[in-house]
Structure formats: structure tokens, C-alpha cells
Design brief:
By secondary structure, the protein is an alpha/beta fold. It has 3 domains: 101 residues, Arc Repressor Mutant, subunit A, CATH 1.10.10.10; 95 residues, Periplasmic binding protein-like II (D-Maltodextrin-Binding Protein, domain 2); 102 residues, D-Maltodextrin-Binding Protein, domain 2. The protein is 43% helix and 20% strand. It has 13 helices and 10 strands. The chain has an 8-stranded mixed beta sheet. A two-stranded antiparallel sheet has the order 1-2. Helix 2 packs across helix 5 and helix 3 packs across helix 4. The radius of gyration is 27 Å and the shape is elongated.
């Protein structure tokens, strides 16, 4: 059953210039999920006959059967199955709209890389909400999507880069500090004390295909020609650090983003050298006054949380 078929059913029904009662849509959703009028009646605190009448009312509205009735269960027809995602989508949208009205809070959408979201922001959300209880944050990790900062789009963007975004208001949040990291059990393979040459016998874990972070650190050590036994590339630094903590190899990790794993002992830093790459995570929004005012509280909190 195609989405176009479901849309034709709805279009025909809407030509009646009236909408079905909301209660019938909720009942339809519960019956579709449970496959039972009896179970739906229990969940909605209604009689079984009331459930049956509401489904009949909805079938009359759509002009087709939505369920096949059997002795102990009901099964969606093709038409009913096609309508399920549309009805559920409407119900979810209504619930979200009502919740936003009820809480009377401010809602902001912030887009950021997944590693920054999981390893830096999430542990601090409790503090953010305690300081700004009326602020509701939607976290969007589609960092690769180009924002418009218009209605229905994001309000604040957090990106990894060098801080150069002309025409935008830019705030540094997390300067990148890099050093090799691995599990405590893996560290023994590097020697005591660890020797840079031992990295040639290891799997080096990367979060960018250019491997520029490792190149920068190895050059600082004078190891210009070091070649690893194997290189494993991940699409996020979070994955690379997780793989390192599991004992798979050595990753080039950010001291700020790995803080929890370093404090817990899941990761260790076998070499003393820590370099500043000149890159980091930045908060970005349009430089115009209304856009900055919209995110002012959140931006102020983010800057306050910046490491000294």
C-alpha cells in the first residue's frame, strides 16, 4: 500500500469539508497497535461497544473498512494500514503542540556534532535546566546539514573549525587539545615509559580521513615517517575514543571531550605531549540583533562552561 494511496483516501474524505472527531483517531491508533477492541477498551477506559462505534464512525468517514473482524482479534486492512502512520503523525504533532503550550517555555533548536553532544553537552544538561528552567532545547546532530537560521530551522549552530565564519557571531566554546589515548591494558604495549616508535606496531584510530590530528602530533614528536600497522577510520571522535577504551588501538583524543573517560580510568594518556591544534568547537548564529537575543541566555551559559 503506497503513501499516495493513503493520501487519496484522505483527500476524498477531506472533500466532505469536515474532520473526524479526535477521539476516533486516538481509538483507531490504539486498536491498530493492540489488534483488539477489548484491549483498546481497557486502555482507553471505554466500553467495547463504544470502541466499535467509533471505529465504524471513522470507517464511514473514510468510506472504507479499516479492520477485518475476527473472533479474538482485528487485523488492519490495506486501507487501514496505509492510514496508520498519517494518523499517528497527527496525534504526535498535537501532543507536542499541546505540551509546548502547557509548559509556556522557550524552545530553541541547536545543531551540533554527535561527539560534542554526547561527551560535552549531555553531562551538563541538568545544570542548564536548573539555571534556565523555562528553556527547552532540541538537540539536532545533523551537523553536515547547511542551516538557514530561518523559521522552522535551527537557532544556534555548534561546529568544529578554526573560528572563521565571516558575517556570523562566533563564540569559542572548546579549544582542541590533543594527545594519544588508549585503554590501560593496551598502554603496556607502548613500553614503560611509552615510546613513540611503538605506535608503528599498533592500530591507530582516526576520526577524520585526512588523519591530520595524528600528523600534527607525530610531527611535534619528530616522528615524520612513522607508519602504523593499521589505520581504522570512524566518522566521529566519539566512536574512535570508544574503540580505544575497548582496547582496539590508540586514538588521538581531545582532552576536554575525553574528560569523563580519563577520570574514570577507561582511557589513559601514555605520552606527556599535549598539543593545541588551533581548532575547536564554536557556537555560531547570525550577527543580527534579533538572532543573538534569541539565544543570548543559552550562549551565555555555554561560554561560562568554557574551560579556563
Amino acid at each position: 500500500m503506497t503513501g499516495a494511496y493513503a493520501e487519496n483516501i484522505l483527500k476524498t474524505a477531506l472533500q466532505q469539508n469536515r474532520l473526524p472527531p479526535l477521539q476516533t483517531l486516538q481509538t483507531f491508533s490504539v486498536v491498530a497497535e493492540t489488534g483488539s477492541f477489548t484491549q483498546a477498551a481497557l486502555e482507553l477506559n471505554l466500553s467495547q461497544s463504544a470502541i466499535s462505534r467509533q471505529i465504524q464512525q471513522l470507517e464511514h468517514y473514510f468510506g472504507c473498512s479499516l479492520f477485518q473482524r475476527h473472533t479474538r482479534k482485528v487485523v488492519l486492512t490495506e486501507q487501514g494500514d496505509a492510514i496508520v502512520p498519517i494518523v499517528n503523525g497527527l496525534l504526535i504533532s498535537l501532543r507536542n503542540s499541546f505540551e509546548a503550550t502547557r509548559t509556556k517555555g522557550r524552545s530553541l533548536t541547536v545543531r551540533m556534532p554527535p561527539t560534542f553532544a554526547r561527551r560535552w553537552l549531555l553531562p551538563r544538561l541538568t545544570d542548564l535546566h536548573s539555571r534556565h528552567p523555562d528553556l527547552n532545547i532540541t538537540i539536532d546532530t545533523a551537523w553536515f546539514a547547511r542551516p538557514s537560521f530561518g523559521p522552522g530551522d535551527i537557532d544556534l549552530l555548534i561546529l568544529y573549525g578554526n573560528g572563521h565564519w565571516p558575517g556570523m557571531h562566533v563564540e569559542l566554546l572548546l579549544p582542541e587539545k590533543l594527545t594519544p589515548m588508549c585503554s590501560p591494558s593496551f598502554a603496556g604495549q607502548l613500553g614503560d615509559p611509552a615510546e613513540v616508535e611503538s605506535l608503528a606496531n599498533c592500530v591507530l584510530l582516526h576520526s577524520n580521513a585526512r588523519q591530520s590530528d595524528w600528523t600534527l602530533w607525530l610531527q611535534a614528536e619528530g616522528a615524520y615517517d612513522l607508519t602504523a600497522m593499521r589505520n581504522q577510520i570512524f566518522d566521529t571522535q566519539d566512536f574512535a575514543m570508544t574503540a580505544a577504551a575497548s582496547g582496539y588501538g590508540v586514538t588521538m583524543g581531545d582532552m576536554h571531550l575525553a574528560r569523563h573517560d580519563l577520570e574514570s580510568g577507561a582511557l589513559v594518556t601514555p605520552f606527556p605531549r599535549v598539543i593545541e591544534s588551533g581548532y575547536g568547537y564554536y557556537a555560531i548564529c547570525p550577527a543580527r540583533g534579533d538572532a543573538k537575543a534569541l539565544v543570548a541566555d543559552l550562549l551565555e551559559w555555554l561560554v561560562q562552561e568554557r574551560p579556563a
